[in-house]
Specification:
heterodimer; A: 264 residues; alpha/beta; 8-stranded mixed sheet; 6-stranded mixed sheet; 8 helices; 34% helix; globular; B: 310 residues; 17 strands; disordered C terminus
Chain lengths: 264, 310
């Protein structure tokens, strides 16, 4: 049987800053373990409404790396038709971007993507994502899809619940602890740049790309909610990719112009 | 004299007394679709007349379904947008744009505000992907509008997202409260019981909100895949309905088609029925909004063409 893997990330971006590079490196490594030298990585930007911004950042991060990046934009299928099932099941890693958890699940449901993702997971394709894209794999999460932080259901591939941006958005953490106290299944809290990796059966291993960012286990024990940090493995940031010659030159010229402007 | 039972029944089924009395004297008055049907020609009426009944204000329910057009598709041709604004009867109508079918695309929202500028209406929009920025109470906001304008895109995604946020129920309420509902493409299909979507891949059949008990097909061009598929779906049991070409709009009052208007002289609307295995397509007389002194025409289907199944 294929090893089922899910990487849930509390929050990150696709910039060239060290912690973001570290997260990208981990995603690439997981994809390569499934797909070899040039793994196929597909972005599902559904939760954001398929914004150009999210898609652009994804390609900026993976475009120059040893992989085949693609995006499946359900709102843009009109201009770019794709066979959803064939495309998704041909991937090595499916990455789900952040946004509205409620809309993400509603749109997936409408397009029947949920069943394809669960099949992909069972076939060993790595599922990953941040924020709404991390909570969607659990039974429930705390989303701001309606403005205020509220509990919402996920796909339920993983047991329990997840709260992202844990200490970065205190009102979200408070809503999560209250919800777990009220009977929502317990689970995990993830700070930005902390992640949890499930590989096969058993407990997840925690990773962190930024000092101080942690993963927490949150349980409802006899009338009180307990929260305990999990030991996490630190992900070092790889050296930044060397700038391409033309980009380096462009930046030099830009700097020169700026200086000339200040002088003249 | 009415018995108590009659009065209760009347309230329940919203019988429009003014309409019944008016009809008896040969005056054509509009009745809601749950009132007595076929009591008089609806189409002589120029503007829907709000009627006071038992102290309750009855306003007509109106939907304008564009086959395609308006600011999204016809930049520089505001005829359809002007038409829906005028329907509200308000001097400075409150208009709310729902761009959900596009995934709340920023460029689309910007184009809406450009087209519905502040000097002629009070425009707002609701982004269901960015709820933290918009009005907190969606229901209160939508029910305070004069016009709700739904943008184009993926109707499958649109309906999914609406249901998740309870917008489907709110829109029904808005319609019943007399708020004008309109939209193009996905924003037209959504109002009907059944629709033909050709957003990606082969045209598919799907269920809409069902405010209008018909089927609908947009961007209805001769020799198109959509038209072919629509006819096939009709033969397979899809309910009868209406189609509109780009630039044509179907204006429903209650659930009756009251007229077809167009922003292009050649654009048309169609009525589609099935008789056994035959699909009967009738072109509907259409009013071009660009002509001066436009006189409303009767929405009587002209039997111009009949498509026969093989």
């Amino acid at each position: 049987m294929e090893v089922r893997r899910i990487l849930a990330l509390g929050g990150h971006d696709f910039t060239s800053r060290p912690p973001d590079r570290a997260v990208c490196e981990l995603l690439l490594r997981l994809a390569s373990e499934h797909g070899g030298e040039r793994p196929r990585i597909c972005l599902l930007p559904t939760a954001s409404g398929d914004t150009s911004e999210q898609i652009g950042r994804f390609y900026a991060a993976f475009g120059e790396r040893p992989c085949e990046p693609s995006d499946l934009s359900l709102f843009r299928l009109g201009r770019r038709p794709m066979a959803l099932r064939d495309h998704l099941l041909a991937q090595d890693l499916i990455y789900v971007g952040g946004g509205s958890l409620v809309n993400l699940l509603a749109v997936w449901e409408a397009h029947d993507v949920a069943s394809i993702l669960s099949l992909a997971w069972r076939q060993g394709i790595v599922l990953a994502g941040q924020s709404a894209g991390a909570m969607c794999w659990f039974e429930a999460g705390i989303t701001k899809s309606s403005g205020k932080p509220l509990a919402a259901a996920g796909l339920g591939l993983l047991k329990g619940s997840l709260c992202v941006h844990y200490n970065n958005e205190p009102e979200r953490r408070a809503a999560y602890l209250a919800a777990v106290g009220d009977g929502m299944p317990g689970g995990y809290g993830l700070d930005d740049y902390a992640g949890l990796l499930w590989e096969g059966e058993g407990s997840p291993s925690a990773v962190t790309a930024r000092r101080g960012a942690r993963a927490y286990r949150v349980c409802n024990r006899e009338e009180s909610v307990s929260e305990s940090p999990l030991p996490a493995r630190f992900l070092p940031a790889p050296a930044p990719a060397a700038l391409r010659e033309d980009i380096a030159e462009f930046r030099r010229i830009k700097t020169m112009r700026k200086r000339a402007g200040w002088l003249g | 004299m009415y018995t108590l039972g009659t009065v209760l029944w009347t309230i329940k089924y919203r019988i429009n007394f003014a309409a019944v009395v008016g009809n008896a004297f040969g005056i054509s008055v509009h009745a809601g679709e749950r009132g007595i049907r076929n009591f008089g020609p609806l189409y002589n009426r120029r503007e829907p007349i709000p009627v006071d009944h038992l102290g309750m204000k009855t306003v007509p329910r109106q939907i304008v379904a564009f086959g395609g057009g308006g600011f999204s598709m016809e930049s520089g041709n505001p005829l359809l947008d002007d038409y829906v604004l005028a329907l509200t009867g308000a001097e400075r109508p409150r208009v709310c744009f729902l761009p959900s079918a596009s995934g709340d695309a920023d460029h689309y929202i910007v184009r809406f505000y450009r087209a519905f500028s502040a000097h002629r209406c009070e425009a707002t929009h609701i982004s269901l992907f960015r709820r933290e920025q918009g009005p907190e109470d969606l229901r209160a906001h939508l029910l305070s509008q004069d016009l709700i304008y739904v943008g184009g895109g993926s109707v499958v995604s649109l309906l999914g997202v609406w249901r998740a946020h309870g917008i489907d129920e709110i829109l029904r309420e808005a319609w019943e409260a007399g708020i004008v509902l309109c939209g193009l493409s996905a924003g037209s299909l959504c109002w009907f019981a059944e629709a033909v979507t050709g957003f990606h891949g082969a045209p598919k059949r799907l269920q809409g909100l069902g405010l209008l008990p018909f089927s609908n097909c947009v961007h209805y061009e001769p020799k198109s895949k959509r038209r072919e598929s629509y006819h096939q779906f009709l033969r397979e049991g899809m309910c009868a309905g209406y189609a509109a070409e780009d630039g044509a709009a179907l204006h429903f009052t209650g659930t009756e088609l009251s007229r077809v208007v167009a922003s292009r002289p050649e654009a048309r609307g169609y009525r589609l029925d099935v008789a056994g295995r035959r699909v009967v397509e009738m072109r509907i007389a259409t009013t071009f909004l660009g002509d001066r002194g436009v006189v409303p025409t009767a929405p009587v289907p002209e039997a111009l063409s009949t498509a026969v199944a093989n």
